[in-house]
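Appendix C: a fully annotated inverse folding record. The material below is reproduced so that readers can follow the format used throughout the book. The structure is listed first as tokens, followed by the designed sequence.
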């Protein structure tokens, strides 16, 4: 800052700019350089576990798959209805607790996905299930 700037500052016409710099501790400086790095490409493959449980005793292993960020597809075609309902209730609760999603894929087939997987429906399925009436020209064409 020059002599003229100080003079103007002394008269109150121009304010002095003061800048203060804070120094980070020496060890913290190195840690912050890598803290903001995010890997875009991942070499991990997402696994899908397809299971056909027969007993409720298998439910803990299924919940462990969800906790390990794996999708679980459950086929209940050869499972007793009472056991199927208990397993669905338990896995649904585990999925909810892990902020995941569930989807019924068929009559006895269910998908449970952890929070890192987005479950999206096909637009054709949404159209079939919509309650919107068809236009007059298309009513006879529905099969």
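Designed amino acids, in order:
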């Amino acid at each position: 800052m020059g002599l003229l700037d100080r003079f103007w500052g002394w008269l109150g016409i121009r304010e002095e700019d003061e800048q203060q710099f804070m120094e980070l501790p020496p060890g913290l400086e190195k840690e912050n350089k890598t803290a903001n790095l995010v890997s875009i490409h991942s070499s991990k493959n997402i696994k899908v576990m397809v299971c056909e449980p027969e007993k409720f005793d298998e439910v803990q292993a299924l919940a462990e798959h969800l906790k390990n960020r794996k999708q679980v597809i459950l086929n209940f075609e050869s499972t007793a209805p009472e056991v199927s309902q208990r397993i669905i209730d338990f896995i649904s609760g585990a999925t909810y607790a892990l902020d995941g999603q569930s989807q019924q894929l068929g009559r006895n087939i269910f998908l449970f996905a952890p929070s890192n997987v987005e479950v999206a429906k096909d637009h054709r399925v949404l159209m079939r299930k919509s309650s919107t009436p068809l236009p007059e020209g298309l009513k006879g064409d529905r099969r």
